[in-house]
Amino acid sequence: MNKRVSYYSFLLLFILCFFKLNAQTKKTTAKQLLSEIETEFNVSFSYADQSLSGVEVFIDLNNKNLQSILEEIEQTTSLQFNKIDNTFYSVTQKDQQLNLSLQELEEVVINHYLTSGIKKHNSGSISITPSKFGILPGLTEADILQTIQALPGIVSVDETVSNINIRGGTHDQNLLLYEGIKMYQTGHFFGLISAFNSQLTQHVTVTKNGTSAKYGDGISSVVSMQLSDKIQENNEFGAAINLVSASVFTKLPLSKNTEIQLAARRSITDMINTPTYNQYFERVFQDTDLTNTEDAATSKNENFYFYDTAIKFLYDISSKDKLRFNFLNIYNDLEYNEEATINTNNEASVSHLSQQNIASGLSYHRQWNDKINTLTQLYYSNYNLDATNYDILNNQRLVQENNVLDAGLKFQLNYQLNSTINLDAGLQISEVGISNLEDVNNPLFKSYIKRVIRTYSSFLETEIKSKDKSAFLKFGLRYNYIPKFKTHLIEPRLQLSKAFLKHFRAEILAEIKSQTTSQIIDLQKDFLGIEKRRWVLSNNTTIPILKSKQLSFGLTYNKNKLLLSAEAYIKKVNGITTRSQGFQNQYQFVNAIGNYQIHGFDVLINKQFKHVSTWLSYTNSTNRYFFKDLNNSSKFANNFDITHVIDFGSTITFDQLKVALGVNWHSGRPFTSINNNSTSNTIVYNTPNDSRNKSYLRSDLSATYNFLIGKSNAEVGASIWNIFNKSNVLNTYYTTTDNNINKVEHQSLGLTPNVSFKVRF
């Protein structure tokens, strides 16, 4: 390894000296040159791939500043650079300025947020570009939903991507959009892996507050995922494998104006038993029907796998008309055989759990002129959770189903009044139907409930920015009408930011939002105890419409690759139910309606050196429930109240090698203790959430190395989650079994290794 590095170092030095002595100008493609400039001057370019297609550049970078280099490129090519801020430029062909002007990305305030590929915008939102993603501790790949948990104010109380808590909210309060389509399933392996393949995903935007008025639903956050929308000239293929799954993807231009993008991923866990799978299995299935054995004579043999497939078809009808079709299929499947000897007879059964989300959409974009463009989208999302659970010892079969059907039409109009004022308006019609089935054979019982809600929405939003880009204002109103409840909802949204004293920026974000879908838990053992949450619709009585109000103020200092950021916020959510919060105490079987209010602040320090990026973030928050009919009408700690969170991370990049080390610590999650009056079969609880688990502490390490296989780019990676195998208690509750009170403690993932290999050609 050292000899090889020395050899390449000598070869590189020789080549540099040769060109220094014999040539002041080199010939390269514009795309390659811009990539070199990004690295050399710590800037970022946004461009359509075809803007650079076939463009060759003859230029020397030595002893020149950034401005002179860009001017020389403009003089010798058809490219034009538009400065957004000191670190961000958009790139277009000079003859394409008219058609692309309305698609300019919003201004980037912070270009390198935590690591490369993560940026913060003047709207307060944070974007992630998986293809430019650097590295984070514990991750060798850009797992989308694991990555966003590195951002301040975002945590998962149980380490899963299917239970992400953003500023105190439950996971169902996050709106996850795939190409504008709402997704109801977000994880593989029942929450340990993101269900969205990062190989095709080009852009992810996370908004915690100040959401655009074009978005309804998602009272805690919006996570929007977009695939590449540009037709490229050349074919692109890629493949990857790790100790859990294998995946492939391709981008195939079918003609000058058509392209198809394909991606597929499947687990290898049903074929190969790896250390990673063993740790995942132990974490996910603890205290579920799969691991709980009531009788020593019972044995179980599981078979688990997952897959996802994605398709996008691009058709540029003309230079002004674009048609896009998307399809995504996400699937989890668990099956286990159960055998037992009862009264000398051998009994056997097969229990099964499957989870699937299919999404598809057809969109049409029209650029009418240099000021007006429209977007029309038809979409469909279907989620199914099915379980058949056999209890041999009690001769019982339980069938449970949860089905969601979400379809709608969106229309959006954008009008660029001038270089500083932009207007957005739109309409949306959506219809959501959710059904729940329970069928028991012993004793005979069957329940089927289905609800449907149609919502008509419209929005109007204006964006104003100063000519020098120092000030930004976006204000919008969203109007929702729900005929079933004869309910009118008006939701204002605000984003305001202002740069001052050259390196400072202040921002104010505010929003009012609502949503009619939520997840509840009827019984902790539902759906085999593995995926026990089910989607339901508001009925405006026992399950109200969720409504939230949020306000935040932030201050940022950014100079010489030093970022200091602080944001204070307050949020209140009305209409929550006890069943949506997952209580495992005296309120587990109580139906009550209340609210929660959280206030807190996030602080981030991020310093970049030549090869090192280091950050430290701290979150402090207080999250309290209020249920008028519970706890003597007194407030008490939220189930997701994590008072203190500290994240430290550091990444080192040296040529093709990247290394990341991180430490995650947070205070313990609340739980309800029991008092001395409890008996062998009766639990008497103290005040709700009066106790806390011990603090959580985890250290992670990861590394990747890039190299060439022929002309193909390859990457090998390795990671260790929880290096020191620290045992963390994620949740605590009490049960009664055989006249005994049992204290149950859910444990976190132990030391979990993973290795990966990727290649692109």
UniProtKB/TrEMBL annotation:
The record, for PROSITE patterns, names: TONB_DEPENDENT_REC_3 (PS52016)
Instruction: Report domain TonB-dependent receptor plug positions.
Output: 143-218
**Topology in the membrane?**
Multi-pass membrane protein
Q: Which Pfam families would you find in this protein's record? A: FecR_C (PF16344), Plug (PF07715)
Give a yes or no for keyword Isomerase in this entry.
no
* Extent of the signal sequence: 1-23
SUPFAM superfamilies for this protein: Porins
**Keywords of the record:** Cell outer membrane, Membrane, Receptor, Signal, Transmembrane, Transmembrane beta strand, Transport
Q: Which residues form a coiled coil?
A: none
Q: List the subcellular locations.
A: Cell outer membrane
InterPro entries, sorted: Beta-barrel_TonB_sf, FecR_C, Plug_dom, Plug_dom_sf, TonB-dep_rcpt-like
Q: Where is the Protein FecR C-terminal domain?
A: 27-87
Q: What is its main location?
A: membrane
Q: Which family does it belong to?
A: Belongs to the TonB-dependent receptor family.
**The name this protein goes by in its record:** TonB-dependent receptor
- The record lists the organism as Mesoflavibacter profundi
